[in-house]
Specification:
GO terms for molecular function: 2 iron, 2 sulfur cluster binding; 3 iron, 4 sulfur cluster binding; 4 iron, 4 sulfur cluster binding; electron transfer activity; metal ion binding; succinate dehydrogenase (quinone) activity. The chain is of the alpha+beta class and 248 residues long. The chain is built from eight helices and seven strands, in the order ββαβββββααααααα.
Length: 248
C-alpha cells in the first residue's frame, strides 16, 4: 500500500487497503474480514472505493446506496469503528497509512455484507407517531401558521434522514432490542415541540416507558455519529424534561 506523503495532490492516484467485514448467508456461518487493495484519489469517498471493488474486483460485495450525496442516509456503515455515511467520508480525511476497516452498523440483524435489516429501526420510528396530528382544521385556503421562534424550537430535529447512524452507535440499543433508540426519540421531538401539533402528550406517554427516553445513558455517541449534525443528546434531554413536566 502506498503511504501518504506531503507532496500528494488531488490529481495523484494511490492504493489503499480496505478490510471489509463480509457475510454471505449462503456460504458463511458467521461474518469474516476480507482485504481489498484499491486505487483511489484523495478526494474520493469510501463509497467510491466500494464501487470500484464491486465493479472491478468482486461483484458479490453488497451494500446499500442511493443518492450518494448524504441525503437519503442509505449507506450508513462503520468506518474505522465509527458510524458514518460512506458517501460523505473522504479518503483524505482518514489515515491512509493504515488499512481502513469497514463493516455493517451494529445492533440490527445482519443480512449480507454491509446490509442490515432496517425493519426494527423503522418499527420504533413508526411507534412514536412521527407525523402531524392536529385536531383543528384551518380555514379554507389557509395554512397552519407558525412563528420563526416557534419553528426554531424543533428546527434541529427536522434534519433527520433516518440513516440509523445515531441509533446503531448507542450501546444501550446494542444490548436492548426493545429500546426505541435515539432516532425515534429525535423524530418524536420534532412533533412534540411543533406548535401546530396536538398529540404531544400521546408521544410523551409512549416515551415515558421503561424502553423509552429513560434508557438513554447520555454517552453522546449518537450526537457524534449524526451526519447531519443534529444535537441528538440535547433533543433526548428536552424530551425527558417534557415528560417530567407532563406537557410541552
Amino acid at each position: 500500500m502506498a503511504a501518504a506523503t506531503q507532496t500528494l495532490t488531488a490529481a495523484d492516484a494511490f492504493t489503499i487497503t480496505l478490510i471489509i467485514r463480509r457475510f454471505l448467508p449462503d456460504v458463511d456461518d458467521e461474518a469474516r474480514w476480507e482485504s481489498f487493495d484499491v486505487s483511489v484519489y484523495s478526494t474520493d469517498r469510501i463509497l467510491d472505493a466500494l464501487h470500484k471493488i464491486k465493479w472491478e474486483q468482486d461483484g458479490t460485495l453488497s451494500f446499500r446506496r442511493s443518492c450518494a450525496h448524504g441525503i437519503c442516509g442509505s449507506d450508513a456503515m462503520r468506518i474505522n469503528g465509527r458510524n458514518r455515511l460512506a458517501c460523505k467520508t473522504l479518503i483524505k480525511d482518514l489515515d491512509i497509512t493504515q488499512p481502513i476497516y469497514v463493516e455493517a452498523i451494529k445492533g440490527l440483524p445482519l443480512e449480507k455484507d454491509l446490509i442490515v435489516d432496517m425493519e426494527p429501526f423503522f418499527e420504533a420510528f413508526r411507534a412514536v407517531k412521527p407525523f402531524l396530528i392536529a385536531n383543528s382544521t384551518p380555514e379554507a385556503g389557509k395554512e397552519r401558521t407558525q412563528s420563526v421562534a416557534q419553528r426554531a424550537i424543533f428546527d434541529d430535529t427536522t434534519k433527520c434522514i433516518l440513516c440509523a447512524a445515531c441509533t446503531t452507535s448507542c450501546p444501550v440499543f446494542w444490548t436492548d432490542g426493545q429500546y426505541f433508540g435515539p432516532a425515534a426519540i429525535v423524530n418524536a421531538h420534532r412533533f412534540i415541540f411543533d406548535s401546530r401539533d396536538d398529540a404531544a402528550d400521546v408521544r410523551l406517554d409512549i416515551l415515558n416507558d421503561k424502553e423509552g427516553v429513560w434508557r438513554c445513558r447520555t454517552t453522546f455517541n449518537c450526537t457524534e455519529a449524526c451526519p447531519r449534525g443534529i444535537e441528538v443528546t440535547k433533543a433526548i434531554a428536552e424530551v425527558k424534561q417534557a415528560v417530567l413536566r407532563g406537557k410541552r
